[in-house]
Amino acid sequence: MASKVERCSLSEELDVSRVLTGLWQVADMERGGRTLDADAAAGALVPYVEAGFTTFDMADHYGSAELIAGALRSRVGAGAVQLLTKWVPQPGPTTREEVRAAVQRALGRIGAEQIDLLQFHAWSYDDPRYLDCLHYLEELRQEGLIRHLGLTNFDAAHLRVVIRSGIRIVSNQVSFSLIDRRPLAGLTRFCADNGIQVLAYGTLAGGYLSERFLDGHAPDEKEMNWSQMKYLRFIDASGGWELFQTILRTLDSVAKRLGVSIANVATRYVLEQPAVAGIIVGARPGQSEHLAENLQLFGFALDEAGKSEIETALSRLQPIPGFSGDEYRRPPFLTASGDLRHHVEDIVLPFDTCSTGDGRTQALSGTEWESLGGFSRAIRCGSRILVSGTTATHGRRSIGGNDPVAQLHFVIDKIEGALRSLGGRLDQVVRTRIYLRNTEDWQAVTRAHGERFRDILPANTLIRADLIGDEYLVEMEAEAHVS
């Protein structure tokens, strides 16, 4: 049952295949110091282009993936493929020159004058300097080095912060599968409402969503590739291997009735969700390809009976912790290694700190207002951390536009960054006070506070006040006790 590859527009200028070929496994193939021959690997990808799978997804840290994509582009012609890459900088400050150098390095590797889609990942929301990177990237988009900007591993709250701050975003790439349905908790709806496309990876859970693992044992760790190591953690977090087997049996029943594979059913489920433009299926150039099976995906749709069976089975799963992307930002780290040692070199504090010599420690953001007004961003006295009134400001930029919810999310991030700089955590907050300019915003702001503090439940006061600065719609202060 072969059909033509479906396509979707990320924008008026960028049309992509709805099954994108992911090249993250290139890094796994190059473990141990091996480097793939770019021309040979590109040759192995030509059949993908000929079959209609013309869109390739990669990143700066996927080994030789960008070089392979560049060799493929040279072989089949610049207009025959769409090359999507990512930039994942290390935490901490990044200059405008460093951002330009990263973009030019990617352009050189893929052999192009313009990147079709550059997707950005931030390791920590509580360090506001990630927004500097995005503003610098927006400048390069306007200059023409980048056609479109996207994000990867952003949740709905922080996608909101970014776009309300004036950054033009067309897509957000996140983990999304039958096992990991976090995007359905608000992200897909926000994307649909704001014209942003979702690109879903991990839809096959590292290959576990297939007949290969039906009624079988979990593979030994020594036999697993990085994707299998990563997504076994997702399976464990959602209820474990035995419960996962019940999901596979349900999918197998639906698949047999429709005359397709388990993988087809699993990927079609994600592809039919709101705002999902495409799914990313990994390839190991020269080792394995699933073109015929991927083409089957466009020859059927899930029927209502199948959807009902699947939803009933999935209702038994435990939700994956947190929001989309949290697996890279907070425990439990659902990565191949179970931590971030293969990703992040250093832990960087958002704010500078200094001791006053009398048992107090100050966190300082360095703004002129701190010295002018004689205050600290936050101060720690013993086990007590007090955070000053915080507005949606980063340097000379106002963040969040005229959206009070976006402003509050950024404010909470700044508060979390101040707490972390002083050895505290957001879940140690015992008191918050919110000052609101417009009374009509109280419900939206209250819900946003609830989203971030629903498992913490500090004492809270909401006050209508005339804030200083016309651009500020909300201000917040906090107090934490660090055990």
Walk me through what this model shows.
This protein starts with 6 loop residues before the first strand and ends with a strand. It has two domains: 7-328, NADP-dependent oxidoreductase domain (TIM Barrel), CATH 3.20.20.100; 352-481, RutC-like (60s Ribosomal Protein L30, Chain: A, 2-Layer Sandwich), CATH 3.30.1330.40. It is of the alpha/beta class and 483 residues long. It is built from 15 helices and 19 strands. α2 (38-51) crosses α3 (65-76) and α9 (241-258) crosses α10. The strands form four sheets. Strands 3-4-5-6-7-8-9-10 form an eight-stranded parallel beta barrel, surrounded by five helices. The chain has a seven-stranded mixed sheet with strand order 11-12-13-14-19-17-18, covered by helices on one side. A two-stranded antiparallel sheet has the order 1-2.
Short account of what is shown:
35% of the residues lie in helices and 20% in strands.
| Level-2 CATH architecture of the largest domain | Alpha-Beta Barrel
Tell me the strand order in the biggest sheet.
3-4-5-6-7-8-9-10
**SSE class:** alpha/beta
* Share of residues in strands: 15-25%
- Please identify the top-level CATH class of the largest domain: Alpha Beta
Note the main sheet. 8 strands, parallel, barrel
Key descriptive features of the protein:
483 residues; alpha/beta; TIM Barrel; 60s Ribosomal Protein L30, Chain: A; 2 domains; 8-stranded parallel beta barrel; 7-stranded mixed β-sheet; 35% helix; globular
